[in-house]
């Protein structure tokens, strides 16, 4: 883009209205078509010329020069319309790398461009995890394409309070009929009490530990107390476990540095009523996880997670352990990582909606992960900024009695915005 065109666009975006300066650039005259735009932005300090007093309007503007104009526009946040502020924010996001390169924090601009923003993601998935027509206990082996799209709206109520709503299509097979359409899968309010207490009330995604036992929705109240080094989560509400189940979840996280991350958790599953209307106490679950990152760039990963039903003994255990190399980042093109993990879920284990893409077996269309063990390989690669590809495959999967089980394969294409 020519420099004069960029300046004219900036004038329209910023809406500056100060008095014109008296010919600050020797190569810009009153006869030039961009004269008024150049003069206005120069008077506001949004643009600067060269040491010899020229503007050089015919040369192409660089991304860094454009980013500087966006950064200087920060001074005019209180003088522009909501539409103009939204345009400035979109430009700030587009030129985030250049802004950060010379020390301008995009977050500072975000704080001043109104109280509303949105983000989202889309996923195309291909796998062989489909329960079949009669809900058999083994994986059917039918390969299917799925799609999912989500759009999240966040509103800042004040400097300590925000509200969010997320719409989702859910995972939908391409050949599926009668899909119910888009639904609200997150709606919550968050409030910061002081520096170390964050309260969340509503319906939101929830990961217990690193997600071995549960990675799905949670409805209720969650209190996060502490900081990035040491924190505690206290949660009271309902999880999705073959219907809504009342729980209290207690978690502790400790991260002394960027190389070590340790977590512990306890899930208290509240009493329910059985068919004969007598109170039935559900088994509680406890566990923990450890992640260690090695090397000068922390690209070598070793980690694992363990969980156990309190009254089931060894039959209630589940664990996964593995290692990997690399660091895939959806915001950085051509980054990648690979992982290999071994999983072992005993017959009475509590693994309901797990983070890990281990083989999923169905009984009457209910996903089950118990009574299985084997290996899982994962590869992640960022094709370009905001577009990533992930591949998963299980191998040597067996029951606890060493009976072979069908293997899983999955390919995900993820886009976020």
Protein described:
The longest helix is centred in the N-terminal third of the chain and has 13 residues. The strands form 3 sheets. The protein has a 16-stranded antiparallel β-barrel with strand order 1-2-3-5-6-7-8-9-10-13-14-15-16-19-20-21. The protein is elongated, with a radius of gyration of 27 Å. Helices cover 13% and strands 45% of the residues. It folds into 2 domains: 108 residues, no CATH class; 301 residues, Porin (Beta Barrel), CATH 2.40.160. It has 417 residues and is mainly beta. Strand 8 and strand 9 form a beta hairpin.
Class based on secondary structure composition and strand pairing: mainly beta
**What's the overall geometry?**
elongated
Report the C-alpha radius of gyration, rounded.
27 Å
The major sheet is characterized as: 16 strands, antiparallel, barrel
According to DSSP, the number of beta strands is 21
- Report the portion of residues in β strands: over 45%
Average pLDDT confidence is 79
Examine the secondary-structure arrangement and name the CATH architecture of the largest domain: Beta Barrel
Top CATH class of the largest domain: Mainly Beta
CATH superfamily of the largest domain: Porin
């Amino acid at each position: 883009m020519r420099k004069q065109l960029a300046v004219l666009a900036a004038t329209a975006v910023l809406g500056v209205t100060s008095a014109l300066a008296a010919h600050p650039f020797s190569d810009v005259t009153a006869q030039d078509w961009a004269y008024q735009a150049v003069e206005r932005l120069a008077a506001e300090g949004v643009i600067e010329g060269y040491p010899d007093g020229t503007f050089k309007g015919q040369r192409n503007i660089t991304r860094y020069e454009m980013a500087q104009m966006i950064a200087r526009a920060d001074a005019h946040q209180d003088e522009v319309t909501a539409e103009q502020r939204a345009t400035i924010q979109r430009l700030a996001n587009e030129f985030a790398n250049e802004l950060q390169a010379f020390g301008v924090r995009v977050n500072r601009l975000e704080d001043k461009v109104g109280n509303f923003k949105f983000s989202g993601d889309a996923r195309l998935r291909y796998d062989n995890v489909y329960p079949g027509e009669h809900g058999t206990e083994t994986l059917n082996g039918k390969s299917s394409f799925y799609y999912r799209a989500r759009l999240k709206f966040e509103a800042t109520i004040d400097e300590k309070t925000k509200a969010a709503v997320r719409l989702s299509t859910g995972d939908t097979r391409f050949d599926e009929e009668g899909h119910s359409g888009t639904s609200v899968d997150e709606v919550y309010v968050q409030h910061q009490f002081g520096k170390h207490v964050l309260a969340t009330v509503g319906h939101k995604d929830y990961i217990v530990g690193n997600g071995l036992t549960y990675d799905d929705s949670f409805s209720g109240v969650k209190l996060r107390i502490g900081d990035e080094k040491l924190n505690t989560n206290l949660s009271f509400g309902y999880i999705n476990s073959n219907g809504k189940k009342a729980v209290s979840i207690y978690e502790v996280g400790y991260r002394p540095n960027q190389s070590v991350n340790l977590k512990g958790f306890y899930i208290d599953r509240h009493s329910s009523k059985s068919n004969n209307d007598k109170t039935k106490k559900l088994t509680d679950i406890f566990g923990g996880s450890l992640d260690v990152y090695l090397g000068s760039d922390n690209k070598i990963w070793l980690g694992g997670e363990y969980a156990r039903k309190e009254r089931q003994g060894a039959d209630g255990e589940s664990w996964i352990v593995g290692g990997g190399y690399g660091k895939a980042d959806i915001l950085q093109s051509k980054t990648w990582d690979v992982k290999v993990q071994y999983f072992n879920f005993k017959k009475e284990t509590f693994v309901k909606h797990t983070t890990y893409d281990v083989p999923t077996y169905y009984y009457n269309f209910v996903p089950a992960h118990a009574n299985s063990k084997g290996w899982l390989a994962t590869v992640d690669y960022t094709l370009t900024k905001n577009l990533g590809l992930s591949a998963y495959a299980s191998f040597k999967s067996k029951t606890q009695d060493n009976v072979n089980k069908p293997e899983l394969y999955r390919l995900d294409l993820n886009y976020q915005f």
